[in-house]
Design a protein that fits this description.
mainly alpha
Length: 306
């Protein structure tokens, strides 16, 4: 387990001084955030993945009984996946935002945000790693609506990033990249569900379901509303905030450490973090360009294209 760089006796006082918290008093009351240790991360991952699998199986069995509600009973695996994913992303967003906005992390010197293991990052990474490997990836393979090559590649890449943050380099910035940033996923998740619901009702024969037209209007309105919210949040969170934090905070702080003797044993994992942040940032800016082009061409509303 790589948790701390080696240091000589002569350099230890200097490193400790650099990593010591500043003595400025906290401006906000700190919340008791969930954390994990190097010894508990695998248990957290197992519980997370096991709970997701159990919830998937239970919800699918329940949704299949929802006769007269085809938007639930048809494709129950997809509907269950969307509900469970919404819970995981809400937890990640809430925990990540609370940790990111807390003054505790910013009271540290920049080097300590990378060299001192962050327990909340470990928790988030372990939670996401477990649900990705045991539940989300299998769902993406077996559920038709989720079976897209880009989605599978994204899931594998996220699992690798989560493993790095869980087991090798649990840096403070993990609470942002694995937590707060998922805020933009919440309206997208809801949009995908209501797009499925509207599509299901559109496929019914006229008169097959009493009140179908009223429900269809409602589902279309919710689909379009969440599509607009998803687009706005993607621009704000994935386009602007992700890029700003990466360029103004993450890279200026990690760059000096990549060649520093203080980070010798963590150099590989830190390089992996640096490369993954850059790759995901470039991918999201590409997606942002596609989103802007689609919106200019088709306007707001409708179903998000794959």
């Amino acid at each position: 387990m790589l948790v701390a760089p080696p240091c000589s006796a002569s350099s230890a006082p200097l490193l400790l001084a650099r990593a010591a918290p500043r003595l400025a008093p906290p401006r906000l009351a700190l919340l008791a955030l969930p954390t994990a240790t190097s010894g508990s991360v695998w248990a957290v991952a197992a519980v997370s993945g096991g709970a997701a699998v159990a919830a998937q199986l239970g919800l699918v069995a329940l949704l299949r009984r929802a006769k007269g509600r085809p938007w639930l009973s048809e494709s129950p695996g997809f509907v269950a996946h969307q509900a469970i994913a919404l819970v995981f992303m809400a937890i990640a967003t809430a925990v990540g935002a609370a940790a990111w906005l807390s003054p505790a992390g910013w009271a540290l010197e920049p080097a300590a945000r990378f060299l001192a293991p962050d327990g909340t990052t470990r928790f988030l990474a372990a939670m996401l790693f477990g649900e990705l490997v045991l539940w989300d990836l299998p769902c993406a393979i077996w559920i038709k609506q989720l079976r897209r090559p880009d989605s599978l590649l994204h899931h594998f890449a996220m699992a690798a990033v989560a493993f790095n943050a869980m087991a090798l380099a649990p840096i403070y910035y993990g609470v942002f990249y694995l937590g707060l940033i998922e805020a933009s996923t919440l309206p997208l998740n809801a949009h995908e569900y209501f797009a499925h619901a509207a599509r299901t009702l559109e496929s019914l024969q006229p008169g097959a379901l009493p009140g179908a037209e009223r429900l269809l209007r409602r589902f279309r309105a919710l689909r379009d509303g969440f599509q607009a919210a998803a687009a706005a949040s993607f621009v704000a969170v994935r386009g602007v905030l992700f890029t700003a934090v990466s360029l103004r905070r993450f890279y200026p702080e990690v760059a000096p450490l990549l060649a520093s003797p203080a980070a010798a044993r963590l150099r590989g994992p830190l390089w992996a973090h640096a490369v993954s942040v850059g790759a995901f940032n470039a991918l999201q800016l590409y997606w942002l360009g596609l989103l802007v082009a689609y919106t200019v061409r088709n306007g707001v509303g409708g179903e998000r294209p794959d």
